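Hi V.,

You were right to ask for the full record rather than a summary. Here it is.
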Amino acid sequence: MLLIIGKGVIRPDRRDAFIAAAREQIVETRKEPGCIAYDFYESQTEPNTFVFNERWASKEAIDFHFQTPHIKKFMSVLPSCVAEPPVIEVVEVAKIGPLGG
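Predicted structure:
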């Protein structure tokens, strides 16, 4: 499994446009083969900072994701919304389980 953690600071004047575009593509992304989980959250300590939390079955599933019309549409909106370049990390998971287990 692969995790993608993406963090972006959004311009306050483009916040609503960003949220609308993110929500629209999330609905479609969750239907994709290989998408285990996909969501985004707003930081409670850093204003206008959003974090995407994604879980994917494989690199191939991620590659497919970036070819879909909904992510291309989102990526066309994103540059006008970000206040600084986003930070995107990919984590390869060997094992996952409950805390303390």
